[in-house]
Amino acid sequence: MSDFKLLAQRDIIDILIGDTVVLEKDDKQFRLxxxxxxxxxxxSTKFGLECTxxxxxxxxxxxxxxxxxxxYLDQRDGVDExxxxxxxxxxxxxxLNDYKDREEIKRCYLExxxxxxxxINAQLFYSHKELLSINNRxxxxxxxKPITVPTENITSINVEYIRGLVGRVEEDLCSKQFDSVVxxxxxxxxxxxxxxxxxxxxxxxxxxxxLELYRECKETLGMIQDKSWDKRxxxxxxxxxxxxxAISGMxxxxxxxxxxxxxxxxIKEREARLIVNASVTxxxxxxxxxxxxx
Length: 294
Description:
The chain is mostly helical. The protein has two domains: 140 residues, no CATH class; 134 residues, no CATH class. It is 53% helix and 6% strand. A two-stranded antiparallel sheet has the order 1-2. Strands 3-4 form a two-stranded antiparallel sheet. Strand 3 and strand 4 form a beta hairpin. The chain is elongated and about 85 Å long.
């Protein structure tokens, strides 16, 4: 069993099945989408727990259906996927129907999800646990404990994948989750470097140190500069190293993967966008160098 079992308490389940108001905005009260008994049975069956709704009465209460499903999935490492299902943007159509502007719809959705997580964490407070969303994964962890959620195994990386970072952080930028932008930018740089090293059959350093990874990548690609190189090219490559150094340092002191310390800085949206764009440029360049040597 994992800490996800803590979500199987009545007050939290009432939040997840849409019975508890989590946000008041624009003279409206917002909850998660309402889940009826038949809907809960359908979700349970979808996740492998066979469930039939008792239409004639005498069946379980709605909250009990979800309690059983959480406990079932907790044994199978599946609660993360259940939360993704319950928080799926596509299920909020009726709730957000009054909003017509695309950005306002997205903003309100993110506010609801943020309020849901905050309300759940208020219930988890006395257990000294908290629900977190990191790298598109949900985890329940000790309050304030630094954690790292493994990213998905990437078997192929191309320019389109790299440029996709801009789209992947758009929600974070919209909701002002700039620390998450730093984490995802750093993760992209690390993914590209590791991908290149693995494709070349080079041993990948296991220290998790981004600068060490980059140095290994430079050596593998023959990017070690000397005086025979054009001065202007040397200056640009020196700039790449500074980008890696800055992203690594900002991630270590400021990202959502670590606790808050005295070294933390206040990242604004303009800096967050700069980090994203710099990461994309950096990754496109070293990938192009790798592709040109095939």
